[in-house]
Amino acid sequence: MKRGAMKILFVASEAYPLVKTGGLGDVLYSLPHALHDRGADIRLVLPGYRALLRQLNQVRILGWLDVRGAEGIVSARILETHHPDFAFPLWVVDCPPLFDRPGNPYVNASGQDWPDNGERFAVFARVAALLAQDTLDIGWQPAVVHTHDWQTGLVAAFLADQPVRPKTVFTIHNLAYGGHFSHTEFVRLQLPSHWWSPEGAEFHGGFSMLKAGIVYADAVTTVSPTYAAEICTPAFGYGLDGLLFSRQHKLHGILNGIDTRIWNPSTDPHLTAHYSTSRILPGKRRNKQALLERFVPQADDAAMQAPLLGLVGRLVEQKGIDWVLAAIPVLLAETDVRFVLLGSGQAVYEQKLARLARQHPDRVFIEIGYDEPLAHQIEAGSDLFLMPSRFEPCGLNQMYSLRYGTPPIVFRTGGLADTVVDANEATLADGSATGFVFDTPEVAEFLAAIRRALDLYRQPAQWRRLQQAGMRQSFDWSQSAGHYLALYSQ
Ligand code: ADP
Ligand code: GLC
Predict the structure, then answer these.
(1) pTM for this one?
(2) How many A from CA of 14 to the centre of ligand 1?
(3) Which of 13, 24, 26, when mutated, tests ligand 1's pocket best, judged by the most ligand atoms within 8 Å of its CB?
(4) Tens digits of per-residue pLDDT, 95-113?
(5) Measuring CA to CA, how many Å separate 364 from each of 295, 296, 337, 406, 453?
(6) What is the pLDDT of residues 269-285, one digit of tens each?
(7) 343 CA closest ligand 1 atom index
(8) Which of 18, 28, 62, 345 has the most CB within a 10 Å radius?
């Protein structure tokens, strides 16, 4: 590390590969590494979930911090670890009553928010704010604290009250999750009373940790330029559009990158065969066959010839799963397509998808759950990738699919609009087309886009050009990391 390197403290509730529930985890791995590669001095602080602690080998105790919780003082042990997957030290807030429990970071086994989430993330934020001020006297004082989503929204608020403090950046990865809690909770957590105002964290009779981040951070970013504009409008703002509109001077849309070392079809260890832009077909075919044969004993000619439509994602309304559910029977009836879908989320979607798979065991393949290798195999083995999200702050899966030569079908919103170029006469002619984009949020339009895609799929030369154009896009972090560094130094 160069002397005088900019010190940046990342604070987040997940980071791949230690703990990941979605794209947030990916970004919290790849963005700090991209900054580290550009000379920044990084620490990343995470909650000490049980699953995370179990993956740590050697830890050093940096110290103890006592902060206010819901029932009095809570004591947290701060651990430092050098994990082989991370090029910089990780700091872990070890507080067993709040984080040492099995399962998901945010919800219990039945999918409900942990009842003490307010306390968990208020305590985490209090501790992070103290670390940001080097309260433990470690001799590491960040110039910038970069926080992510509602779980860390209070960090900027705690720091805003300090006379001398680092600058704060708050990134919105998804406005749909507001971190809303009641007034009773606000009082129980002994949060500063001056936050209780419409200009502060108060939100519809309760308070929002996400809103606190927006109000109190020096700069607010979100993960694509289009989403940055969308969230300033009522349709996408979740009641915060007015606030965001008034803070446009400090709101920046910076497109996420992808980790091109992890997501690379010519080296990906999860794939059956590797391939690259210059020679796509044989490798992709072998991956398709292996993927199909995970679900059926043998992938016969008919199955190999039929277009395979893939989907990976959280099964929630955001992702347009209801449109997918409506489209599948129509497409099964009128074409020979197959589907391979991986995800978990809302029980109704899981059940409906499982039912479709039972009804069409040779054409609809479903895996309910979380499976990192299978996610890679679907990106590589499918012919088309479905991502009809109603809104999408950035979306990583469509970028992975582009890179894997699997053209995505997306709704024109957020990061999907910023990363996929619709295949039409003009874009096909000039070689800029990379996928299929529909403009009206309706099943009929989604179906029309799929039909256009299937049409082009039957034209091998055009199809290869489309695949190659997608694979050549550079979605690595270099540009975005540069934008963040410029923002930090402002
Ligand atoms: P979001 O963050 O809204 O879930 P993104 O497209 O940004 O959407 O990122 C999703 C990430 O999570 C991708 O890395 C994707 O591969 C991964 N993912 C989502 N669901 C699953 C699953 N069921 N199994 C494996 N990986 C998944
Ligand atoms: C969120 C968004 C997704 C984005 C990811 C990483 O989970 O839903 O669009 O790609 O965060 O920023």
Answers:
(1) 0.97
(2) 13
(3) 26
(4) 999 999 998 999 998 889 9
(5) 9, 10, 9, 18, 19
(6) 999 999 999 999 999 99
(7) 23
(8) 28
